[in-house]
Amino acid sequence: MSRVGKKPIPIPDKTKVEIKGRTISVSGPKGELSREMPADITAVVEDNTILVHRPSEQKRHRALHGLTRALVNNMVVGVTEGFKRELEIIGVGYRAEMKGKTLVMYLGYSHPIVLTPPESVTIEVLPKENKVIVTGIDKQMVGQVAAKIRSFRKPEPYKGKGVRYVGEYVRTKAGKTAASGA
Question: Which of 44, 73, 149, 151 is in the most buried spot, having the most CB atoms within 10 Å?
Answer without folding.
Answer: 149
